[in-house]
Design goal:
Elements (H helix, E strand, L loop, with lengths): L1 H21 L2 H16 L9 H14 L16 H15 L4 H21 L3 H11 L7 H13 L5 H5 L2 H18 L4 H50 L1
């Protein structure tokens, strides 16, 4: 049962990623519910499935990123994107080879957390978010100062926010997701399903070929029969 559950979670995650990348919203929502049910059924996330679970949680939250009325956390102040940032941080800890992409996505999520609040006119909440987001580390300071200036001017359409737009964030997440899918395209259920489809395809082709052969044979028999009737008629006529 545990092994089968592993296979199902791998498959659900793969489907969720694929529909996110392809922008199929209805299918994404369907597999979101499946993945959520499977993840909720885990008493503890196994080490080998951590990355998979984290990316599912990330995508589910990114998809709701513009909806400030939707909450994933008990703390109602936490927006979907701020919750997504938590899972992005967990994903970063699982990897070390994508530093540039990690940095780009982290910066985009941080900027859009503030931008989405501003677009909805929640400037007070945006200020509170800014205080939660950034530490006192020097690496965060330049971006924090820029966002503080944007907040002060209360203009959600400044070049900074337009350059690091929500669409750019989605595209970067899609790039990351495509890399994840390439690493996980050999999961068991995908392989088993592919073999089954190929097998059915071969059987269907063989059956089609047999049907064509049988039809040709039947046509030849009918032609012989008709020819015999004509021959007999001619002989009788003579």
């Amino acid at each position: 049962e545990a092994v089968a559950a592993d296979w199902m979670l791998e498959f659900a995650c793969y489907c969720l990623c694929r529909h996110f990348v392809e922008g199929r919203e209805a299918e994404f929502r369907r597999w979101r519910d499946v993945a959520h049910a499977l993840i909720s059924g885990l008493s503890k996330v196994p080490k080998h499935q951590k990355k998979m679970v984290y990316i599912c949680q990330l995508l589910i939250r990114i998809a709701k990123g513009k909806n400030l009325e939707f909450h994933f956390e008990n703390d109602q102040r936490i927006s979907p994107l701020e919750s997504a940032l938590f899972f992005w941080t967990l994903l970063e800890r699982e990897e070390i080879k994508l530093e540039k992409l990690h940095e780009d996505i982290r910066r985009l999520i941080q900027i859009q957390i503030v931008a989405v609040h501003m677009e909805n006119g929640y400037y007070k909440e945006a200020t509170e978010v800014l205080e939660r987001l950034f530490t006192d580390s020097e690496s965060d300071k330049p971006l924090r100062v820029k966002l503080a200036t944007v907040l002060k001017n209360k203009d959600p359409y400044v070049p900074l926010l337009q350059s690091f737009s929500y669409n750019l964030l989605i595209n970067k997440i899609k790039s990351y997701t495509e890399l994840f899918m390439k690493e996980n395209e050999t999961n068991f259920l995908i392989q088993a399903a592919t073999k089954q489809v190929e097998s059915k395809g071969l059987r269907a082709t063989a059956l089609q070929n047999k049907t064509v052969t049988d039809d040709e044979s039947n046509l030849e028999t009918k032609q012989r029969f008709v020819f015999s009737i004509i021959l007999l008629r001619d002989m009788f006529g003579q």
